[in-house]
Give the backbone structure.
Amino acid sequence: MSARTPAPAAAPTVAFQGEPGAFSEEAARHLLGENVSTLPKRSFEEVRAAVVAEEADLG
């Protein structure tokens, strides 16, 4: 039997309402780490749609 080291999990993509650099983006990085990918959206509906379409992991 051999032990395997699990592959590192990819950083999640987080959709957020606002412009790049907004507090929402800062909060996502604070909670999920600096390696998180962020995806700015104009509205909360666009955030929801990005998650439903699997364009983002979280929103």
